[in-house]
Amino acid sequence: MSKEIGSEAADFSILYKWSEGTVPPPYYYEFTIRIGPGKQGSIEFLPDYPMHDPPMWAETFDLDEGDLNRLHALIAEKGVFTASWTEVADPPVGGSLEWMEVTVGEERFLVPSTIEEKETVRDVYRTINSLVPERIRDKLMAQREEFERTYLENESHNRDGE
């Protein structure tokens, strides 16, 4: 790495992605959490496989500077800025996937979705998820449940009408 990564969290951002394992519709979903730069965050939620052109629900939220500094320190502690992360040509199939990309200034650190990397950064992923306010997470999950219910009702009507 060409420079020392400072302890200031103001100039860093995170792109975190999580997706459900391989399951039939309507049980699949995925979401993306973006943190920073600065004190803003967002979550984008897809309630079905992207190829099915589902709606995308987006919410924004504000972050506390102390939370950002703690997250930055945890990322540094877990070695994200110094580890040699394994390139993954084909991520594992079947189970849920999660990965993140951390940007500090002009440098990017991609933590791929492998079992080894997931164990190393498990606390980072939990912390990122905890920054999404509970009211937003509850709202998105309620929308997902409604999407699932509507999907199943439509499938039932389609079967009955054939």
Describe the secondary-structure layout.
Elements: E1 12-19, E2 30-35, E3 40-46, E4 57-62, H1 65-77, E5 97-104, E6 107-111, H2 115-130, H3 134-161
Antiparallel strand pairs: 1-2, 1-5, 2-3, 3-4, 5-6
Characterise the protein shown here:
The chain is an alpha+beta fold. The chain has a single domain, classed as Mago nashi protein. Helix content is 35%, strand content 25%. The protein has helices at residues 65-77, 115-130, 134-161, and strands at residues 12-19, 30-35, 40-46, 57-62, 97-104, 107-111. The protein has a 6-stranded antiparallel beta sheet with strand order 4-3-2-1-5-6, with helices on one face. A hairpin with a 2-residue loop joins β5 (97-104) and β6 (107-111). The longest helix is centred in the C-terminal third of the chain and has 28 residues, at 134-161.
Question: Biggest β-sheet, characterized?
Answer: 6 strands, antiparallel
- Contiguous low-pLDDT stretches (5 residues minimum) are 1-7
Order of helices and strands: EEEEHEEHH
Order of strands, widest sheet: 4-3-2-1-5-6
Shape: globular
Name the CATH class.
Alpha Beta
Q: Please give the share of residues in helix.
A: 25-40%
- Architecture, according to CATH? 2-Layer Sandwich
Count the E strands.
6
CATH topology: Mago nashi protein
Number of helices: 3
Strand content: 15-25%
